Amino acid sequence: MCGIAGIHGLEGIADPESMARRMTDAMAHRGPDATGVLRRGNSVLGHRRLSIIDLSAESNQPFVSADGRFALAFNGEIYNYRELRKQLEWPWRTDSDTEVLLAAFARWGAGCLHRLQGMFAFAVHDAHSDELFIARDRMGIKPLYWHRDDRHLLFASELRALLATGLVARRLDADALVDHLRYQTVHAPATMVQGIRMLEAGHSMRISDQEVRIERWYDLVGAVDRSAEHLPIGTVRKEVRERLSRAVQKRLVSDVPFGAFLSGGIDSSAVVGLMAQASSQPVHTFSVVFNEAAFSEEKYARVVAARYRTEHTAIRLQPEDMLRMLPDALAAMDHPSADGPNTYVVSKVTKEAGITMALSGLGGDEVFAGYPVFTRTLALWKKRWVTQFPLGLRSLAASAISVARPGITSEKLGELLRLPAFSVDDTFPVSRLTRTDAELRQLLKRDSLPANSAASVMRGLIREDAGHALPFLSQVSLGELSTYLQSVLLRDTDQMSMAHALEVRVPFLDHELVEFVLGVSDAQKYPHGPKQLLVDSLGDLLPAEIVNRPKMGFTLPWELWMRNELRAFCEERIARLDARPGFRTGAVVNQWQRFLAGDKRVNWSRLWSLVVLGDWLERHGIE
């Protein structure tokens, strides 16, 4: 895992190599082991290396082919690089997946992407054409940002690297701000900074002096295994177990010490169990625990650690510890995220224990229908008869509910009742809202609001599936995978783990596993409740205490801290955000005061997201 950067179009840049170094220096945390900058033709490539496979200096990047034609800057891991190496004739100089990727591109061009199993964002320069080719992995695990003006195209693993060039104005994208307030994130390809875009998952770019061409090379909707829906349940369970086992095994390839995040939930426990079965050495596991029992999953993590005899490290986090770490956690954010500090803490502990690579259970909820949003959306679909009532009558009912029980839940219910239909592309975006448009109008000085980005994503996905009709829950999974997972969880995981030069691998997002499970029928995936298919497929791998425990989700006790130890910290940022142009004077402060007064209609997480947003805008000088 590393950080990459580059520029195409060097006209007007006095010292392109120095600019590329500023870009790589801005994300030095991503690669403490080596750094490199290479100018070729009208381009320059930059790289920061975190050594995971083939630790020798011969694998440092940018990596140039023996004939000098191709140069590669690569972030990520190719898990099947050994199999690909056997298919390639090449004057090998290293044992790295980096060289295999370059050889694969030299032989198959963009077609090599379909042969890769892994997580990646990479750029290849072709000296013959003086073109750059950039690509991002199927699921969007590794990030890639870019900016284009009249003369230059810049790209990097982190947004802050683009800002470091001085070529990008530090200007807030007003529509992206609305997106962030709606969902506590911004959905690709948009970012918080005007003019900076994110290359979408499964997409590539071809850059020359004449044009920039973006293409989608991977289509998850089209890749779903449609035959899975008609298989007997025994075959489905066997296939799920085998595919997840292979996914874990592939991700154990490493030349450095590795471990796993262990919360004691079903997903992380499954990963640890399969790691233990595949490894001849005890697995190192890590968890964060709290004195506040309502937030601590300590007993469940210890059950799994004991079952698989892992080398377990539990770090007990006190409020004063979080206060001490919070400035660094916020500084590590490349994009404002209310949940980011959670991952920062466990990544810090893991790295300090001498671990450079860790596996995570991320993605299990999205693939196996584990979130409440699946239950809510399915329940709404079953009540679609409600939409047969006249819209005027439903609007009256929505208004009555909002008056009787004010708050975000009632506001969302009101929005749902006003929908023309209860299809997934209608209900999913509303179910995921953290603020309704009514509340946004109270916060912002805007005459109109931009279209809902999550709704746009969902409509596109459902359009692509027209005529094929994926199972209902798989349609919800598509929404989760394309919005919350990519724009919150994967982004947080990358930013916060790489802040400590820690690589995180996510076996639940193995594309062969995802493509199969999304083809499974709702009746087999969700016969009695969330994740039933996963639990049944794993058999006795999971202790009974884990299967039967209530779902918690990894979060820190922010509400308690915001009222006490973090109160002054929050109040300072709330006041400054309230004074920013674009916000209605007093609106943000009013919400904070209502929160302190105990108003249950003001959710702590929405306020915490405003604190983080204000801090991020100030820290990066975004106007």
| Topology, number of strands | 17
What is the count of helical runs?
27
Through-space gap between termini: 32 Å
Give the rounded overall mean pLDDT. Answer: 91
Spatial order of the strands forming the largest sheet: 2-3-1-9-8-10
| Biggest beta sheet summary | 6 strands, antiparallel
The proportion of residues forming helix, as a percent range, comes to 40-55%
CATH homologous superfamily grouping of the largest domain:
HUPs
What do these coordinates show?
With 623 residues, the protein is α+β, with helices and mostly antiparallel strands. It folds into 3 domains: 2-217, Aminohydrolase, N-terminal nucleophile (Ntn) domain (Glutamine Phosphoribosylpyrophosphate, subunit 1, domain 1); 222-369 and 479-547, HUPs (Rossmann fold); 558-619, no CATH class. Helix content is 44%, strand content 15%. The protein contains 27 helices and 17 strands. The strands form 3 sheets. A 6-stranded antiparallel β-sheet has the order 2-3-1-9-8-10. Strands 4-5-6-7-11-12 form a 6-stranded antiparallel β-sheet, covered by helices on one side. The longest helix is centred in the C-terminal third of the chain and has 27 residues, at 472-498. The chain is globular and about 75 Å long. 51% of the residues are buried.
Note the main attributes of this structure.
623 residues, alpha+beta, Glutamine Phosphoribosylpyrophosphate, subunit 1, domain 1, Rossmann fold, 3 domains, 6-stranded antiparallel β-sheet, 27 helices, 44% helix
Structure at a glance:
The chain is an alpha+beta fold and 623 residues long. The chain is built from 27 helices and 17 strands.
